[in-house]
Every structure is written in C-alpha cells, then in structure tokens.
Amino acid sequence: MILVGSPRGLRPLILPFGLVAIALVLVALYHGVVDSEGLLERLLMINSGRPNHVAAQEDRRPTNTHAPPKYKPTPTLVAPSVTDPFPLLAKSTAALPPIPQYNVPRHGLHREYGLSYAPPIFIGYTRMWPMLLQCVVSYLTAGWPPESIFIVENTGVQDSNAEGRLSLQNPFYLNYGSLRRLGVNIIQTPVLLTFSQMQNFFLSTARARGWPYYFYSHQDVLVFSFEDGPDTTQRPGDRDWFFYDEQDEIDLRPVAAGQPGYRSFYENCLYELNQTLGREERWAFRWFQYDHLTLVNRAALEAVGGWDSLIPYYGSDCDLNARLEMDGWTMRHRRVGIINDVSTVMEDLLGLYRDPNVTPRFVDPNPIESAEAEEKEPAKEVQSDSTKEDDQDDRNNEVTEKRDERAKGHRELAYFRELVSLVDDMGAYKYRNENKNRNSWQNSQHGGAGEPYFYDGNGFSTAFWILAEAGREIFRQKWGHQDCDLVKDTALKLEDQWRVEKDWE
Ligand SMILES: *[C@@H]1O[C@H](CO)[C@@H](O)[C@H](O)[C@H]1NC(C)=O
Questions:
Q1: Helix, strand, coil: what percent of the chain each, to 5?
Q2: Stated pTM of the model
Q3: Buried b (16+ CB within 10 A) or exposed e, 56-65
Q4: Contact, 301 vs 250, CB < 8 A?
Q5: Cα–Cα distance measured from residue 3 to residue 7, given in angstroms and rounded to the nearest whole number
Q6: 278 lines ligand 1 (CB under 6 A)
Q7: Fewer Cβ atoms within 10 Å of its own Cβ: the N or the C terminal residue of the chain?
Q8: Closest by alpha carbon to 448, among 170, 47, 162, 51?
C-alpha cells in the first residue's frame, strides 16, 4: 500500500482556495499592490521551480540606502558529486536480479511464528539517497519482503520528490520510481519532523494500521543474514548481547545458508518477535546493535506517552529509555544478523545481489573532513588522495585474487565473505578517528539550488546541531541530571520529571 500525495481530506479544499487566491491576485494587480513583472517571475518560478538563481539574487536586492550584506567566505572544500550506486535500477526496463535464493522468504512466513501480520519495518529518510538505497537493498537481499518495508520520506520538500522535481545532487532527493521498482512502500511525512517527532509518527502510523509491534531502522546501516554460520565479531556500535538462558544462547548459534534450520535476517526477526512475546510481557524494545535496528512494542510507548517531542534529537533516547525502565518495561540487546553502521556507499549495489561481474568496493561520498572534526587528524589516518589510490589498487589486486578463488568453487560463500569483510571495513571507516566523522556523510550533497523547497545544506547542518544541543539542555533541566543513564546513576522516578533541582554544581 502506498500513501502519497496530499491527505485526502485536503483535496476538496485546493480548488476553492486556488480560486480565492487568483481573485486576490487580480484585485491586488488592479490596485497596483504588486508589480506584475515581479509577480510573473514568481509565478513562473513556482511552475518551473528553476529560477536563474544568481540573476534572481541580483535583481531582488532592494534599492534602498543600506549597505549590501557582508558575505561569509565561500567554502573552498566541496564534496565531489554523489553517484548513483544502482544504475540498473534507474533504467526502468532492465530486469532486477534475484536475491540469494536461500534468503527468499517463504510465503506467509510470519504465520509460522504465530504472527497474524507480517511485521513492518520503518526506515526514516531525510538526506543522502545513495545511502538509503544501499540500506533498502541490503534488507531486501537479506530476505525482508518488500511489501513490509515502509520508507518514511521525511525531507520537508512536500510532493517534490513524488513529482520527480529534485536532482540527485540535492541532499533531499529521493527516487520514487526506483523504490517502487523495488516494491517497497513510501509514506510521506506532511512536514519535516525531528527525530523524536518521526518516532512518534511511526507510533501513530502503527496505531492507525493496527500493528502492535514494528521494527524501525536507521537509513545508514547495511545488514546481512548469518549466511556463513556463527559470527561473533563485535562491530563498532555493538553492545554485549543478552541471552535469556543457556538454551537461548545455543538457539541463537546460527546455521549457515543451505543447511537445515538456516534462518535469513528477516526470519530471525520473526523468530525474535516470537521469542520476545513468549518470554516477556512488559517489554519495550529489542535492540539489534543498539537502535540501528529496533523492535518496538507499541503498548510500552503508549504507556509512557511516547517520545518527548521537545527533545528533538540526541538525549531523547536517554529520556525515553529511562522512562520505560522506571515504568518496568524491558529493553535488551539481541542479535538477528550482521549489522554495520556505515557512512559510505558501495560503488555498485548489484554486489548485494552477488553479481559475479561486480567487484565489491565502497566510496566515501564526503572524503572531506567534517566541520565537527575540530582537531586535525594525524597524517597517516587522513590519507592523501595518492595513498588512497594506492590502497584502492591493493584492494583491487586483492579482489582480483579473491575473484579467481571464487571461480574455483564455493562461489556464493566466498562472495559473501568478501562482502562482509568490505562492509566491516566500511563500519570501521565510519568510526575512525574517534568517531569524529560519523556524521560527515550527511553533508555530501551540495546541489539543488533553485529547486522546490531548496534549503542551504550547510545551514541545515548548523541548525540541526543547534537544535540537538537545545534538546540536551532540555533533558538536563527535565531531570536535573546531566548524563544519559538516569536509572543507573540516580534515584529518580517517573513522576520526578521537571520537578527536581539540578544535581550538579
Ligand atoms: C511462536 O511460534 C511457535 C511456532 O513456531 C508457536 O507455536 C508459538 O505460539 C509462537 N509464540 C507466540 C507467543 O506467538
């Protein structure tokens, strides 16, 4: 089911309002309130969405006595253009390759786990299309049925993406055609939401559709099934895994693809939901690599009043997790597959379909050090362009050898191992330099000037961090405590919020 376009209830209003607007404009023109040339230019701009930006800026400088504004220096370092990581998908005629056959979900698989509906996964999206596409393709090739994947377009550009009016270099670009070809659903948020508001939007959507449980995933992850059997690598972002008992630990020791008892990533998610329901009543979250992928119990969030919309980004999780725990709901770190938190994109996503002609490689969409990385990195970690090329050559040689190895047999497994090793590198790359570059991918695209709802990319980041910090301050004042873990570090109870003095000097 696809939910796009203006909310049904608003449609009947558009025509009357349009007529009223036209009438007002005619009256204004008659009275000379607006000059018709400027109006025409603006109307044309609304239609085409592509005014001549520079010319428009010059023309619109008011001819008053004030000095022109002083401009900030033009940024000299600009990230290279992003590239489409799935050219085959963009060409609407070519057939898509099949996903690995052992990950194809059996029809009605959820029923085998006592579930009356296929649990959906929400993937929120604001910026950086190549990263979202990579995330979606990884869930699909790990067996998640496309009809149970819900992309939540939270770009703030209204219908511009649905109408195909943004370009790839626009940070908020999203390709509806490509997502539809993949068979996944798209839900549009009516306006740009913060992280906490978007979480509450997932909650209200689940409520409206009668889903008591749902999953949500961040858009910057890449997942795999346990195709190679047990995997005990602790990746950046992993916490200690929780086991209910010894038997549970044995049950979670995965069987490799092709063996009896093998479960894909998706099937493991169903298994996990089944286990959770059987073992605990008052559960809130199951986390898979902290909240990169999360299983949510709607009843828990409803019991504590959902996410605090006034803590827009960071700190909101500390606040909610504490309230849930104070109210007796459990949260546990579990495993359903291999999850990597990444900031880079595979050069060709056909690799995730195990296309033998594709050599798995990744590219950093924003190799420039981010503004948040205040200290200069040591030279050897920075990697000048030339050393990067050398590394790339090494990798290419290595990959060529691996390709020969693949030809000898165990092709699927060899390819899988190559993928896992590449994506582990991508995960490590994101967390390099003490995590200072974790968010650099968000600033990769710098285009889109003049397109509908254009918003300056650097301005967006700056505003984001201001709001994030404001949210942290709200958390501190709400609980009188500065650090995240309220349950471990304080004697606060649920009813204490906003009623206690600060506990630090
Ligand atoms: C879990 O799945 C099994 C079948 O695999 C089923 O018998 C059981 O009822 C399910 N548990 C719950 C809580 O739905």
A1: 45, 10, 45
A2: 0.81
A3: eeeeeeeeee
A4: no
A5: 9
A6: yes
A7: C
A8: 170
Residue keyed to tokens 């790839």: 168
Per-residue pLDDT of the chain (505 residues; tens, 9 = 90+): 444 444 444 444 444 444 444 454 444 444 444 444 444 444 444 444 444 455 455 568 888 899 989 999 887 766 788 889 998 898 778 889 999 999 999 999 999 999 999 999 999 999 999 999 999 999 999 999 999 999 999 999 999 999 999 999 999 999 999 999 999 999 999 999 999 999 999 999 999 999 999 999 999 999 999 999 999 899 998 999 999 999 998 877 899 999 999 999 999 999 999 999 999 999 999 999 999 999 999 999 999 999 999 999 999 999 999 999 999 999 999 999 999 999 899 999 999 999 999 999 988 777 765 444 433 333 333 333 334 444 555 556 666 665 554 454 378 899 999 999 999 999 998 888 776 677 777 677 888 999 999 999 889 999 999 999 999 999 999 999 999 999 999 999 999 999 999 999 8
**What whole-number distance in Å separates Cα of residue 62 and Cα of residue 244?**
69
User: How are strands ordered across the β-sheet holding 121-125?
Assistant: 185-188, 149-153, 121-125, 213-217, 293-297, 283-288, 330-334
How is residue 353 written in tokens?
A: 């379909």
How far is it, in rounded angstroms, from Cα 98 to Cα 226? 19
Supply 389's token pair: 């090329």
Residue 8 is given by DSSP the state G
Going by alpha carbons, the residue nearest to atom 10 of ligand 1 is 114
Q: What's the length of the chain? A: 505
Tokens of residue 67, six digits? 């000095």
Nearest CA to ligand 1 atom 7: 114
**Non-local CB neighbours of 448 within 8 Å, separated by 6+ positions:** 166, 167, 169, 170, 171, 172, 173, 454
Rounded Cα–Cα distance for residues 503 and 362 (Å): 47
Q: Is 296 helix (H, G, I), strand (E, B) or coil?
A: strand
Query: Does residue 113 have its Cβ closer than 6 Å to ligand 1?
Result: yes
SS3 label, residue 180: helix
Instruction: Provide the residue ranges of all domains of the chain, joining segments of one domain with +.
Output: 80-366+378-505
Distance 110 CA to ligand 1 centre (A): 10
Q: Return the bridge partners of 341, or none.
A: 221
CB distance 274 to ligand 1 below 6 Å? yes
Both tokens of residue 92? Answer: 């609407």
Output the CA torsion 397→402→403→409 (10° steps).
Answer: 160
Rounded to whole angstroms, the Cα distance separating 203 from 214 reads 9
What type of residue sits at position 56? A
